[in-house]
Amino acid sequence: MITVKTQIAFRDFLMFNLKTSLIRFMVFPLIALFVFIANFYNAERDDHEMYRQIIICWFIFSIFLVIRSYFSVKNAFFSNKNVQETITYTFTEEKICVEGDTFDTDFTWDTVYKVKENKDWFLIYQSAQVMNMVPKKYFTREQIPELRNMIKTNHIKARLRKD
Question: Rounded mean pLDDT of 17-39?
Fold first, then answer.
């Protein structure tokens, strides 16, 4: 049995969301910028002013995306009181118990959709979109391999680290 008491701070929540969505919201603008720059230098006509304006608009759009993302994450964090609570996770061979200040739930391992582990988090998905975010900083060194073993023993679809 593993028991971990956690609390997610806004900074942790923000950094998690920025790291996981950075690629998604920057790929299209970067491709578009590359195309505009390539056309800017290869333009046969004197359309350089138009391309300069497009590049300026791209920078403004990129800044807008970053600001919008920050406020969206801030709203998501502060509007969900459960995320802000101190949450105690108890992992056993049969189930996961999750207890907060205002809620108490448990679910068996066979209902877990998948588990992802990254450097700072265990993400326990209950469905394709619903997950429990468990910060690894609250685990002891011995508890992390023990949780990985529980996940493997229960044959959960998982992407786990090897460290």
Answer: 73
